[in-house]
Amino acid sequence: MINPINRNIFGNPQSILRIIPLGGIGNVTKNLYVYEYRSRPDNISDILIVDCGVGFPDEAMYGIDLVIPDITYLRDKINKIRGIILTHGHEDHIGALPYILPVLNVPVYGTLLTAKLAEVKLQDSGLQVKVNVINENIPLKIGPFSVEFIHVTHSIPDAANLFIKTPVGNFYHGSDFKFDWTPIDGKKTEVDKIARAGKEGITCLLSDCVRVETEGYTLSEKIIEETLDKEIRNCPGKFIFTTQSSNISRIQQAIDVSIRNNRKIVFLGRSIERNVGVAYRLKYVNYSEMFVVRDKDIRKYKDSELSLIVTGSQAQPNSALSRIAEGIHKFVRIKEGDVVVFSADPIPGYENAVHTLIDLLTVNGARVAYSEIQDQLHVSGHGARNDLALMIGLTQASNLLPIGGTYRQMRHYSQMAFDMGYKHNQVLLPLEGEIIEFSASGQVRIAEKLSLKNVMIDGLGVGDIGNVVLRDRQTMASEGIVIVVVPLDKSSGRVTAEPDIISRGFIYMKESVDLIDEAKKVIIKSLRLKKGRITDWQFVRKQVEKNLEGFLFKETHRRPLILAVVVHV
Amino acid sequence: MINPINRNIFGNPQSILRIIPLGGIGNVTKNLYVYEYRSRPDNISDILIVDCGVGFPDEAMYGIDLVIPDITYLRDKINKIRGIILTHGHEDHIGALPYILPVLNVPVYGTLLTAKLAEVKLQDSGLQVKVNVINENIPLKIGPFSVEFIHVTHSIPDAANLFIKTPVGNFYHGSDFKFDWTPIDGKKTEVDKIARAGKEGITCLLSDCVRVETEGYTLSEKIIEETLDKEIRNCPGKFIFTTQSSNISRIQQAIDVSIRNNRKIVFLGRSIERNVGVAYRLKYVNYSEMFVVRDKDIRKYKDSELSLIVTGSQAQPNSALSRIAEGIHKFVRIKEGDVVVFSADPIPGYENAVHTLIDLLTVNGARVAYSEIQDQLHVSGHGARNDLALMIGLTQASNLLPIGGTYRQMRHYSQMAFDMGYKHNQVLLPLEGEIIEFSASGQVRIAEKLSLKNVMIDGLGVGDIGNVVLRDRQTMASEGIVIVVVPLDKSSGRVTAEPDIISRGFIYMKESVDLIDEAKKVIIKSLRLKKGRITDWQFVRKQVEKNLEGFLFKETHRRPLILAVVVHV
Questions:
Q1: ipTM of the complex
Q2: Is B46:B143 a contact under the CB 8 Å cutoff?
Q3: Tens digits of per-residue pLDDT, B548-568?
Q4: Which fold has domain B222-377?
Q5: Fold of the domain spanning B16-216+380-462
Q6: pTM to 2 decimals?
Q7: B348 and A363 in contact by Cβ < 8 A?
Q8: What's the gap in Å between the CA of A142 and the closest CA on chain B?
Q9: Of the candidates A359, A363, B318, B552, which lies 20 to 30 Å from A486 by C-alpha distance?
Q10: Architecture of domain B480-568 in this structure
Q11: Domain residue limits, chain A
């Protein structure tokens, strides 16, 4: 069943190809894969990058907006990078471009919709960059690499897998895909091309693995339409539909169902308006303008004539749906009779926020339909276990590398591969930062391990938040801060007045006068340890902080961040 | 089908009964229900309290350990309170006793296991209180109330529903239940008693509703045993089992399966050791001591001879399982071949923490089985839609009041009731704080609305964290704090030296010298607004804070908490 390693019979036997995942290993998002060709083991010749996505902060990353891949490894190799290939237009595959492209400054390639979504994304950050639209029928030659785009079905149109030929062997880059035989846009996964690539011999299949734990095949996008039809027919008031704003096919279905039921469509929320705008101009979304109503014209229609397609399926603060639920939207109020349809699963970590939003909509009178309790209101864009097995069957790759999933899912993927006859050494389960090296002679090994850090975006800052800042945020979040101000005479080095205590997020100061008085005594005692002129202020400061911490913990069982400030006067 | 309102034919027609949920409405936890009897509308005669549980903080309640019901309403009525009845031993039904009982100081009642678990809980807080064990065969007379305990199946033994007779009518308090026909302890839900109560006439059924969105009946606890058997037989190394530490029946099953497969049992983690200890002494858990091994003796056995029953199914920091996964447990390390079984669903909000823990266990070599991907590894203790319908059918109550669920679930419950023939005015959907009043003449209405607040527990503090402190924590969590220290001459009122800027959780100060220098200029400019002697320091302080906030937002797009401190010298 399984091909022998595809040997490099023409090239030199010393050459190697290294796959360096700078994101996307042990992780569903933040996808960035480096394909590095070396003509000799010590000579980096050419680098190709696949995808450039953002990740989302975990709960401990207080205040962080986004996480991007750590490209430290690439910094001294920029002149070897031949380009960035984008597989599709989702944030976790294109979202880091505004931060990383200005550093690398290399050509970017993608299918038509992907390229345009990336360009709009870059424009939002003030970057005017042309993204190259590839020709699906001719492999892209880029350095020593040849890249064929193979169309796959996913939850966004124009998604592709990549068949990458290198001097060391052929690789199949199987990022996000499923086998949807009745896709909304009619464009099925090009199984014939995948099979042909398999026939040519594939050294390694990199495969999406996030849904490996779900048996069977992922259902077609098509089945949702019937559910939507039923919901809209049972809606006496406004029909309010929300999904991920990148889910163009889903939005198309909501549009079709609305028009069929004689409702006008209103798009609400920046990212939906933007994505639908791009997709409409490129004809990836189709409707007649006469059915679209602007937000300020909503009042001209009866509730039963309206269908709102809105942002906020993850209960993002300030999204259209959140504002509608909170009763602060400029044009829309929830009324008894309205139906709200969530056609998206909550992203892990957002479950509570989504449930709170659903509750608020319910209290205000809406009937809410959401995928957790109702089948066929959302289907995943990712293949389930059998989709993944089918991909292995089509590619017949010599080695397998599950990507875009947690370590738990990678492990489940490997179990599936073993059941299909793969040997342990054919399934690669690298840890984050590990580099996989393929030699022309057919060897595969973990070559080295990079130490990757989380590059965090906070406001305008890229990577300026590190672990110290985060740790302080965590402490202040759960315990608050107590600031002690000690005035110190500049010339004599003596404490000139009683220290002052200020706190935030710790306790109601006004109701805790006794505690604060006692704390002051602790501080004064700590200051007395060194009589007379204080020269080693650092030492005393540490003493004050330590003693105050001990005292406050004893009294309150809380450990606020303590900050002693000396003011030289 | 539905009984007419059960009229109070003996008592006076002026009497009323008010149900005041101080927790548990629109909320799964924090259960505390007040039954208040008034012989005349303006005369509170007697109060009975059912349950006294804790709630769990939501994501915005940074640093808060627990939330307890707000008993402000009861404070001036303590001499009317006849007692607290506990339905079962779960935290969300007994956990607030240590905080509330010392205030109310009234008798507490429960079944044997519930009473002992409550006593242990109180002892942990240094309170020596005897909880009265009720007699299941004789209704408890308490003031004008008569309370019959009806045994129900749930995820803890000795759980009860209450049939409460009052001078105004009969009430069925149907807190957490399911109809498990093959419970581990053999004690089925007493459907005969429920039906008899129904026959006597029930004015209102208060019913658990949290699983109303799931069709059918909740499966029996029994089915899990087969799954556990399969897992333990496929485990070449240590078998590690985790569930909620209160889930005594589940722990019994893990014990049985372990003994049957010739493994020694080790209990790890304080709450499991404590709960199993109480249950073992009362014979709610049964095993022979010879199968139990202490943690320090683990090394005497081969991995394949061990079964560890551990705390940490919700990935609580410092729980036994978290410490094992992190490699810092004193006696246990994860090895290839170990199997870890999660027999509990993640509590909403803890999903990510649980997934991270599973990933860590997997990376360390364990195979992890958990209920999200494997059927029959966990069943809920709560009844699904048909269980809830059956309860309505048995009680045939005149009115329905869904409790212990979110508003969304209450609404689904009402839909189910309408489908069963109930009228809109028979299903009560109060908002949090609303008081439901039943009159002897058969009227039901929302009488008034209390303004309930979240009473938050943080360390040793009860209710000393309010919204201001929380808001500061939220700001510091996401944006950090910037402190400006301005030395001011006490006698002249002049600024004596350059202001100093200190920050925590905001930015790396050392790498942001330019920003800090610019910020100082902004501060100095703000101080100059008032030339010479500064008398209205409050005004200047606000100016400094406002200008600095504007400057920092412009430069960084972050809004740290800004605190200007004046030091009088």
A1: 0.81
A2: yes
A3: 999 999 988 889 999 998 887
A4: Rossmann fold (3.40.50)
A5: Metallo-beta-lactamase; Chain A (3.60.15)
A6: 0.87
A7: no
A8: 37
A9: B552
A10: Roll (3.10)
A11: 16-216+380-462, 222-377, 480-568
